[in-house]
Design brief:
Layout (H helix, E strand, L loop, with lengths): L10 E4 L3 E2 L10 H14 L5 E5 L6 E5 L1 H9 L1 H6 L3 E6 L4 H14 L5 H13 L4 H8 L3 H11 L16
Parallel strand pairs: 2-4, 3-5
Antiparallel strand pairs: 1-5, 3-4
Helix pairs in contact: 5-7
Length: about 170
């Protein structure tokens, strides 16, 4: 028998049939949740929720994708657009292997490299994108953009910027 990855069998499931697991240690700050909501609104669901079917209930426990599920639950505009359905793939695993899968999914996402993010901010600035555009579309705040511009050491990124703050 040839192995078939779960992603080849995506099914739509009503969001009310999904539930969180009780072992996921991952949290996402509010800023990133807002960016995730924007991403799903702009791009749609590009990754299914990974679930385990709960016996005889018609419900599913989330292995990976809790925050994408949370966006569906909390964003009326996305819920309406998606007809309250969310893409799901099934993993048939026992509890300890589901826990391991959750942790692998969380840890495999990695971290953004500061130097590469600095280069991206520089490239966007050089392309004429304003700091406000970068904040809105990349999910950064003004201080983060400033720090990344400082890391780049590219003086031209600071042209026409005021750096003093007047305090009373």
């Amino acid at each position: 028998m040839t192995y078939k990855s779960p992603v080849y069998s995506v099914i739509p499931v009503h969001y009310s049939n999904l539930q969180a697991n009780n072992y996921n240690p991952n949290t996402v700050p509010t800023t990133e949740l807002k960016l995730l909501e924007k991403s799903i609104w702009e791009d749609g669901y590009t990754q299914p929720i990974v679930c385990y079917p709960l016996e005889d209930t018609g419900n599913y426990e989330i292995i990976d994708g809790f925050h994408r599920f949370t966006i569906m639950k909390n964003s009326k505009r996305i819920r309406e657009r998606e007809n309250e359905m969310i893409p799901v793939v099934i993993l048939e695993k026992n509890t300890v292997n589901r826990i391991a899968s959750t942790i692998r999914h969380n840890r495999a996402r990695g971290f953004h490299n500061v130097e590469l993010m600095s280069n991206i901010v520089g490239e966007l600035s050089d392309s004429g994108m304003s700091d406000n555009w970068i904040m809105k579309n990349i999910g950064m705040d003004a201080n983060e953009i400033l720090r990344l511009k400082q890391v780049s050491g590219l003086a031209h990124l600071f042209l026409d910027k005021e750096f003093s703050q007047v305090t009373d």
